[in-house]
């Protein structure tokens, strides 16, 4: 099925409104190009207000071109004047619910007139309005909302955004609202859904059923409060619906944003979470061995992932067979397989923890009579290695060094300022000890670092 949906990415705009998230200009450029090259964004939304955001907006519009960027700001003549000098179309917004209008001391009639006035001003000064957002539309008076939409279309804005600003709408409500507001209009509608009730994805899919083909998304769902619709979720859902949308680069895109934002996916997050394609129960592993579709809604490869098999007290022979294949062992005697499975289950039950790769290698080497070092060398995929790096920095260099680590070392999972002899604690996950050594050397080479102390994580106890 041909894809006719447009993803208007808001990672650089809404995403920066999340607590603790700040992107440098160069980071914004890298994120933007990563999104465009992956095919996961057709338009980038960026802030544009008086001051540093307008300077960055100018640079980003020049970097990506005016057809790929929209400058996001208030429905205000002074903001239009600022964006006019940046050379890109704009996306304006105005709160339309009674709650928002009261905070601006506007009546419903005042809001309608303001929309008219601001859009006429944009036309007069030659600024193209690609989107006008009716903020908090899902809690607005329906009559006011419909009149505002009619005026927005008449004034020449190219897209109308119906925003569920506080994530309070339910899917059926959102679909009916879009259908009602869209009656008699030719202007395309864009869905902007917040995730306060965990319904952002469901609301976007309801909007799609109502005919919407433009959607605001943010990588990792970054945004105010609970964020907005996650790029990775909506893109994968559309792919599963049969739309022609590229998703193979989703993991790389998410890792890039995680690196610069400092926000890591939750293990249980769909698509990019560590557990998204992990299988633990023996019956699951047995069916996965026969046909992965038995317990996977889509192949992990289409989103740049791979599946993992967990060894535990719930494991069966199939778990062990799949794990052995990772080491290139495709045949094993039934009695040895039985012993190996029972030993794994016993050790997991005794410890009440999953069996790590190093533990599996130890057990398997004894039962299969293979040296554990030889078994480790057979492994097709590198074992994940985690190191904790304690970093001592020069006075007044802590923030600078932390930012440099975040920017230069993609595998840095967490960076914390600590008390004691050292100033920073950095967790780095990678595929081998040699790569871990390389990243530690990179940390030592950063200006302001005096010394480091490194420890390898053998096992995490939960």
Describe this structure as you would to a colleague.
By secondary structure, this protein is an alpha/beta fold. The protein has 3 domains: 6-261, Alpha-Beta Barrel (TIM Barrel); 278-378, no CATH class; 385-456, 2-Layer Sandwich (Alpha-Beta Plaits). Helices cover 42% and strands 16% of the residues. It has 17 helices and 14 strands. An 8-stranded parallel barrel has the order 1-2-3-4-5-6-7-8, surrounded by 7 helices. Helix 8 links the parallel strand 7 and strand 8. Helix 13 crosses helix 14 (357-367). It is globular, with a radius of gyration of 26 Å.
Q: What CATH architecture label of the largest domain applies?
A: Alpha-Beta Barrel
Give, in spatial order, the strands making up the sheet with the most strands. 1-2-3-4-5-6-7-8
- How many domains? The number is 3
Query: What would the principal axes of the Cα set say about the shape?
Result: globular
Q: Would you tell me the structural class of the helices and strands?
A: alpha/beta
Q: Termini separation (Å)?
A: 45 Å
Percent range for β-strand residues: 15-25%
Mean pLDDT: 93
Question: Portion of residues in helices?
Answer: 40-55%
Q: Say what the CATH topology of the largest domain is.
A: TIM Barrel
Q: Characterize the largest beta sheet: strand count, sense, and whether it forms a barrel.
A: 8 strands, parallel, barrel
Number of helices: 17
- Rg, alpha carbons: 26 Å
DSSP summary, beta strand count: 14
Low-confidence stretches: none
Oligomer: single chain
CATH class of the largest domain: Alpha Beta
CATH superfamily of the largest domain: Aldolase class I
